[in-house]
């Protein structure tokens, strides 16, 4: 009699098979941030997930954040941090730290981590190959200048596409440059979304420190259409830090990305669980023209087809 544990493992592989077939050859952009970047076990699991995706013929592209690490470095250097309406005031000294931490320290750590578990990762920033062209954002409201904070005006995905074609995993720090060559700090969610649009990605995954998008009663919503998500924002059900993530998801959907997933990065192997299992570990958002049949159910009872 075969060991039931071995049979269970075979069932898991069979559950993943239709998803692997569906996404083979497709690009999946992953915004990597939050607790998944600071916990050792989660970091290891994320690297393994990325390598497995590449091994089965999927093209992962990683865009990372680094706010807490930037905060720590600024504190160590005794450079004060200031935020206005959620945007970090970025003077020249702060920008040097932002670029050093994002494009140097964190980017290199992620690349090394992926390579150590068998991947072929390459680290770049948005300044490489004119990947992200940006301009200074207008100061919020009537407040003063917030410095070198950028909004994206153009994406040139040629470098990233070339790395994908050569079986590398691009790991991207969200630092862009203006037309005049000024370094600009870019929101990582926004950078991931715009890059997903430019690459015509099948999916955009946003790793967060929450279980996903919740309804008015606090229950996880398995699947949303764009219009449903907009209504949740308008009604005040989606609030605070989840609003920019949902707005990022909506922009990506309008820009041509097939599906966006807001997932719980605190769960080990969250990327694989979301992509390759019927239940998933977050909220999936799709365009209104696409029936949300991938998961016919809600919260823990959902089931989905490979699509």
Structural commentary:
The protein is α/β, with parallel strands linked by helices. Helices cover 39% and strands 21% of the residues. It has nine helices and 14 strands. Helix 6 (188-198) packs parallel to helix 8. It is globular and about 70 Å long. Residues 290-306 have low confidence and may be disordered.
Q: How are the strands of the largest sheet arranged?
A: 5-8-2-1-11-13-14-12
Number of beta-strand segments:
14
Strand content: 15-25%
The arrangement of helices and strands along the chain is HEHEHEEHEEEHEEEHEEHHEHE
**Inertia-based shape:** globular
Distance between the termini: 36 Å
**Helicity, as a percent range:** 25-40%
Q: How many whole angstroms does the radius of gyration measure? A: 19 Å
Q: How is the quaternary structure best described?
A: single chain
Uncertain stretches of 5 or more adjacent residues: 290-306
Counting helices, strands and paired strands, the structural category is alpha/beta
**Biggest beta sheet summary:** 8 strands, mixed
């Amino acid at each position: 009699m075969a060991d039931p544990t071995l049979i269970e493992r075979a069932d898991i592989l069979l559950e993943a098979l239709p998803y692997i077939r569906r996404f083979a050859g497709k690009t999946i952009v992953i915004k990597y941030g939050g607790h998944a970047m600071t916990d050792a076990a989660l970091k290891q699991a994320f690297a393994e997930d990325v390598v497995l995706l590449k091994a089965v013929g999927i093209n992962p592209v990683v865009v990372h954040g680094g706010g807490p690490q930037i905060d720590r470095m600024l504190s160590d250097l005794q450079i004060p941090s200031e935020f206005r309406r959620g945007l970090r005031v970025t003077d020249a000294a702060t920008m040097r730290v932002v670029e050093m931490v994002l494009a140097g320290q964190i980017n290199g750590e992620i690349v090394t981590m992926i390579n150590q578990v068998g991947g072929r990762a390459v680290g770049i920033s948005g300044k490489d190959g004119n990947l992200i062209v940006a301009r200074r954002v207008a100061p919020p409201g009537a407040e003063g200048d917030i410095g070198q904070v950028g909004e994206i005006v153009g994406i040139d995905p040629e470098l990233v596409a070339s790395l994908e074609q050569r079986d590398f995993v691009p790991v991207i720090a969200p630092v862009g440059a203006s037309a005049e060559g000024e370094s600009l700090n870019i929101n990582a969610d926004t950078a991931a979304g715009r890059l997903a649009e430019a690459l015509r990605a099948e999916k955009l995954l946003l790793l967060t420190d929450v279980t996903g998008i919740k309804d008015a009663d606090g229950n996880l919503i398995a699947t949303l259409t764009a219009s449903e998500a907009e209504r949740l924002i308008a009604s005040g059900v989606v609030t605070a830090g989840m609003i920019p993530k949902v707005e990022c998801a909506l922009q990506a959907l309008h820009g041509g990305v097939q599906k966006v997933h807001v997932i719980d990065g605190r769960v080990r192997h969250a990327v694989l669980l979301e992509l390759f299992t019927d239940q998933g570990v977050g909220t999936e958002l799709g365009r209104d023209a696409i029936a949300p049949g991938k998961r016919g159910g809600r919260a823990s009872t959902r089931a989905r087809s490979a699509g």
